[in-house]
Amino acid sequence: MDKPIVQEFRKLGVEIVPGDLADDTQESLETKLQNTDILINTTLPFIREHQNKLFLAAKHSGVKRVVPSDFGPSAPPGVMKYQDSKLKLRQFIIKNEIPCTFIQVGWWPSLLFPYRHSVEGTSIRITMGKRFYGSGKVKIAYTDLERVGDFVARIITDPRTLNKTVQTWDGETTLEEVWDIASRITGENFDDYPRFSAEDIESTLRNNPDFITMVMSEYRRSVFIRGDNTVEKAVGLGALDARVLYPDYVPLPLEEIAKKFYGSN
């Protein structure tokens, strides 16, 4: 409760109610959720038991809408274990008739841009940001991470999105296009970065990877190889197109997102 971000929220006039998903009973959570209109959950989807308890508490305390922790790319069942965990949470919410909205945002552009050669480190972000996956021609829907909140603010108060899935997007691109933009802005040639084929990714998955490697490899296969993460496919799976719902939304051009990324990296 003493973390700087909590203090920032307090300065903005936000009421902070401490709680613990693991230790609090459902009844305790119901009390804490009294007079709450909308519950947005950002907990990892694998922690289903605790989240189920939270969603039931929301229902019984009169919460008008719950938003589970999706905020990622679209993919059909059976492609990614991580995504399947999200889908199981959705099914629990639907089965228990809890008013809800599921929000998908596509891929984050910050995970598409290659890092400069001068950036060093072994974090997943940097490692992934120095690798090229697939042919580079697969279409990818994306939402700038800093614009997700703009969409969410509209979606959670829109009666048209109640009990619906919504796909947000700033644009669609390919990895090849992104790396071309990166080269123009930075003046660097990233052709020396390693390239990974579909077979390379499948080989990683066959060799019993650890949890994080499995999750990231399945994401790479879905996004960069299979091409699951497009607006058309998301709508085909039943999602509403946020850009159709909100035609006045002005997306940030990918070049501007790139300049912002390289300005801080």
UniProtKB/TrEMBL annotation:
The keyword Oxidoreductase is annotated on this UniProt entry: yes
Any one Pfam family match given in the protein's UniProt record, by short name: NmrA
Residue ranges annotated for the NmrA-like domain, each copy included: 4-247
GO MF entry, a single one: oxidoreductase activity
Alphabetically ordered keywords of this record: NADP, Oxidoreductase
SUPFAM superfamilies tied to this protein: NAD(P)-binding Rossmann-fold domains
InterPro entries: NAD(P)-bd_dom_sf, NmrA-like, NmrA/Isoflavone_reductase-like
Protein's UniProt name: NmrA-like domain-containing protein
Protein species of origin: Marasmius oreades
